[in-house]
Amino acid sequence: MKRIGARGRAAVLRGLVCALAAVGVVVTGPAVAHATPSPSTVEAQIDKQWNELEPVIEQYNDVHNQLLKNRARQKSLAAQLTPLQVQVDLAMAQVQGLAVDAYKQGAPNALNAMIISGSPTGLTDKLTYLDQLARHQQEQIKGVAALRDKLTATKADLDVVTKSVAARDKDLSTRKKAIQTKITSLQKLRIQAYGSADASDGPLRLGACPVTYTNDKGGRAAQRACDLIGKPYVFGSAGPNTYDCSGLTQEAWGSVGVHLDHYTKDQWGEGKAVSRDELQPGDLVFFFPGSLHHVGIYIGGGLMVHAPHTGDHVRMAEIDRMPIAGFRRPG
């Protein structure tokens, strides 16, 4: 075999590189190893990004809740307007002859009455009857028409507001895709640091849940939250299979007949303020003073049940893990 010199080997190598490039193979140098970020570093990134995302999620909950309420009110007003319009139309149809003239032009005069009657006999009785008929029909139509016009004006104002709310709802809905992309990135960071979606915050349960059980509404609401441990977090969800933070507390208290809106700031205003020393199972624990964008339900022993963030599940946690804004007692 003929030996190839240095120049020959260089030429062969150049030819091989060109051939590989021609078929789309990229030749690179030695791979550079990248250190895996530490769990604490990833958690710091997750906390920072999630604290920016969760207020947007809660804003969507608020706007969407307003939209649903407004649309229900629109439907109710439309249902009330339809029979009123029927009554007005029926009353107008029943006003015939002189009664129509009485409604449109005022009470008929004696001459008209005489012409219709053909004789002056009983003129006073006829005038009295016509006047009463006109007044009755007029009052009947005016009363119904006034109520119809009032409801129509209310519905018109509501339509304007609802249109604005629907536009905001649509805008936030379009942002959901971008939010979900960011959330997916957070989840990848979690997996990279911990190897699984469930390992970052330890076990879902930290002991008995609730820690202290009381057979009142708060205790039963806390028990309901405990029963939901393990359900996946999905933003904007209020069950039955997935929850976000305010959706979880809404479900827990709803199970004992107490309605809470699906929005942290509304829930803050729907309960009685209590101090930390007064905390009882079922009380709501709010976080992040100023923005109020997270909430959990107290279960005793300094612990709560909450729906933390995407990629995680409803779980027990210490209430001091985040900056506390305050406490509220629903019902």
UniProtKB/TrEMBL annotation:
A Pfam cross-reference name: NLPC_P60
Keyword Protease: yes
Keyword Signal: yes
Signal sequence region: 1-33
Family that this chain belongs to: Belongs to the peptidase C40 family.
PANTHER family: NLP_P60 DOMAIN-CONTAINING PROTEIN-RELATED, PEPTIDOGLYCAN DL-ENDOPEPTIDASE CWLO
Protein name: Cell wall-associated hydrolase, NlpC family
Lineage: Bacteria, Bacillati, Actinomycetota, Actinomycetes, Micromonosporales
